Amino acid sequence: MNNAKTAAELSKLRKRDKFNSNLVYYFMIAPFFILFVAFTVLPVISSVVLSFFDFDAVSTPRFIGLDNYLRMFVQDEVFPKALSNTATLAIITGPIGFFLAFMLAWMVNEFGPTVRTLLSFLFYAPALSGNVYFIWQILFSGDAYGYINSTLLSMGLIVEPIQWLKNPSIALPVICIVQLWLNMGVTFLSNIAGLQNVNPELYEAGAIDGIRNRWHELWYITIPSMKNILMFGVVMQIQSAFSVGAVPIALCGYPSVNNSTDTLVSLISDVGASRYEMGYAAAISVVLFILMSLTKQLLGKLVNMAGR
Amino acid sequence: MQMSISKSDAKKLQKLRLKASRKDQYKRFTRTKAGNFFYTLFLVVFGLYSILPMIYCIITSFKPLDELLVFPPRFYVVSPTPSNYLTLPSLLDNLAVPLSRYAFNSIFVSVVTTFFHILVASAAAFVLAKTDIKGKKIIFTVIQMSLLYNAYTLEIPRYLIYSTLGMIDTYLVYILPAIPSSMGVFLMKQFMDTNVPDPLIEAARIDGAGSFRIYWQIAMPIVKPAWLTLTLFSFRDMWSIVPGGTIFSEELKTLPFAASTIASGGIARQGCAMAVTVIMMIPPILVYLISQRSVTQTMSSAGIK
User: What is the DSSP letter of A207?
Assistant: First the structure.
């Protein structure tokens, strides 16, 4: 009897405890949640809804069903090219960027704190220098004033300047080089931070358990303990690799020669900012989003398999 | 943890341990000569690739006019001059309001946003990583997914929200949308998941610590590398923010806007533009040096019991 009473009281107390601590949790997450819903979730939802409308940013939106989507795949001549360029850029810059950001962080991490800070500075410099990718335009400029052209000319390797940014077969690789340069920072630094948090005892234990060399250590200890941070890197690389747009517009203009460097993002900004077809721009964004989400699902599985 | 040792002693101890662990790390495995060669080569090649544009910027900012126009173009500078920097003050007349106002705006917006972003994002990340509240899985999935939606397309719906909330032409347009940045929560959540051990939280709870205290005094110190890095990311993003179609008052515009106005005036445009670019780089670089210095000095605390 007495026992039952205390048990009941205890469970009551526990419930109240749980309720109280849950209340604190809700209180802690509320500022984020409210702002996130207001400035990200609602805009995304309205953008998806907008993709089924004809909307020029001024007059009332008109519902047109799937017309925007049909137009993309049937009418629009730039879309297929933009899609294939986006895919090419993503396939090249995504994995290379991810691999570089990890390898460089792993290598830099072996140095002492001061050297490490300075070396990290090198690899984070592109992100720190702001939007200086216009410099690449000076380097790759198509006339003899371009640094690369003038160097090659003076070395006698070429007889006339190469149109780095205008020649359709060269422009895309050039964009890849610039984009890789631009994207590395965030993933690289998050990897550096991730490596600081790997428990050193794991390495000691690994040495006892017969880990023979650096590569084993990397594969069996470092990568598995950094899975979460690697997943962060994967998502950030997907985001940047599929969102190439500002760089080709700045370097090659829009539309580029033969649409050779037009991407989905540059198409979106053209459709939205110059032609005011907000519904169509939203529809392209939805397609891009689906592409990225599928990639993320696929790569998420790969990351989980690492270190087995 | 030993509470009896003083703070400076603790620091010394940590330094010693750091040194010891680093020595161990060196001793553990050695590389072959060829390995060393490729290791260095890899770092040098990619280091140059990363840093050269910034160096180019700095060098060009010290070029006199005739060297800016020389043919064939030269990477290095023969007779460096600060003249590009010295002409900048005379270009300030092009600005609508005093430079100090733009500078204040940028500093204010960057510092306030970064501060609140770290607080809000890490608190949310703690709840998502270390508690079992309802709906946390869905929230986390939505956060990750939101990173993949094209930001440009969100401008129009966001504009409607700004005007409904009466935020147009106020500092809030810069600050409020940046505070719940998905990337920050995502990063913090990943770190708290991996590095804050559940037994530690349990132990603290038994000792009578409340949830907020566990977050602030246990989780946050452990994931210090994460929020220091996030501070840098956030500051850098906010420092380069330019007013879009939501800011009309000149006195609310930011430094990058003023910088582009200054850079577009003057005779030796390229030189002045580079000088402005170099000056604009300095604050993020300072934040980098301060935050990364502490990041690389943090010992992994995951092993402390």
Answer: H
